[in-house]
Amino acid sequence: MGALALEGLTVLVTGVEASLSRDLVRVFSGLGATVMAADADTRKLQRLERDVALYRARIEAAPINLASSSELRLFEDNLRLLGRLPHVMICCCPAHNAGAQRDAKGRTACVGRLAGQILQPSLFLHLEPNRAGAIGRALSGLAHPTLLSVLERKPGHGIFNPDASTRFVRIASHIFSLHRQMDVGTAAPDGSVTAFPAPRRKRRAETPTAPQADAA
Q1: Sign of the dihedral through C-alpha 179, 181, 185, 190
Q2: Is residue 203 part of a domain?
């Protein structure tokens, strides 16, 4: 891909309090994508705008309450009218990490999950915890393709192929779980959210057992 390989692509970033969000904005903005950042706290958005300006990168700030289905539906209506619904949504929140805040039942929630289910981006990416140690991180990076390499795949071999099994992609040496539009699901009218489905596992072919010999 060229210098502006992602020109025309719209990317929405959530979990902007994570420092990694700066690197993501820099990467996608440098490749020509339009990057939006959403959060209810305008101070977080202002700090993000200030920080990415160091790299001469730009973002469009969207002060949206990501926990409000009504606000998100209005946001979706506006983006739809403008023809700017996000193609890719990336959440940097630490929902899958050991230090994430948990509810009374011990569950953690991704801050961008409801937005993903209402906006229905083509791809939803969520930051995964790094493997411990430099060797573990290096092996993890080698095991997963980059997002750009996945987008470069020929028709019939890409992520929308029903037989494709791309579960994780790599961006700037960080691993993200990947959910396609058909995997994200939709939000219920009352605003409740269902979890993303567990990754599908390939079933091993069952070897037919040989018929037992007839008893003498």
Answers
A1: positive
A2: no
In a domain, 46, yes or no: yes
In 17-163, which residue ranges form alpha helices assigned H by DSSP?
20-30, 42-52, 69-82, 113-119, 134-143, 147-151
Distance of CA 136 to the CA centre of its chain: 22
Question: How much of the chain is in helix, strand and coil states, percent to nearest 5?
Answer: 30, 15, 55
Domain membership of residue 88 as a residue range? 10-184
pLDDT digits (tens, 9 = 90+) for 6-63: 888 999 999 999 988 999 999 999 999 999 999 999 999 999 999 999 999 989 999 9
Say whether pTM exceeds 0.85: no
And the tokens for 57?
């990168």
> Cβ distance 15 to 127 under 8 Å?
yes
